[in-house]
Design a protein that fits this description.
Belongs to the KXD1 family. This is KxDL motif-containing protein 1. InterPro entries: KXD1-like, KxDL_dom. The chain is mainly alpha-helical. The chain has one domain. Helices cover 87% and strands 0% of the residues. The protein has 3 helices and no strands.
Length: 113
């Protein structure tokens, strides 16, 4: 194969002699420190994501419950107002003298608002 003093061996040995091992060790140490920090940060982000996901699930369930309650309340109020209008109409037909023109106008304004 190559003689002991081949060009490639000489080239490699000179490149290696140019590299300061203290600098290489410092770079490796800095990389290990950064890796540790990134792993800790990644772990914290995973924990945050898990907690956020659980909290979102809880809030979604509460939001859905409150939305259903509001829809039910609106339906109930619509039914109540419809019954009030029906009763008001029946009373106006049964007792027209009690419902003068002014009273009807005032009640109509209340219905609009």
């Amino acid at each position: 194969m190559d003689p002991p003093d081949s060009a490639s061996r000489v080239f490699c040995s000179r490149i290696l002699s140019m590299v300061n091992t203290d600098d290489v060790n410092a770079i490796i140490l800095a990389q290990k420190n950064m890796l540790d920090r990134f792993e800790k940060t990644n772990e914290m982000l995973l924990n945050f994501n898990n907690l956020s996901s659980a909290r979102l699930q809880q809030m979604s369930e509460r939001f859905l419950h409150h939305t259903r309650t509001l829809v039910e309340m609106k339906r109930d109020l619509d039914s109540i107002f419809r019954r009030i209008r029906t009763l008001k109409g029946k009373l106006a037909r049964q007792h027209p003298e009690a419902f003068s023109r002014k009273t009807m106008t005032a009640l109509a304004q209340v219905d609009v608002t």
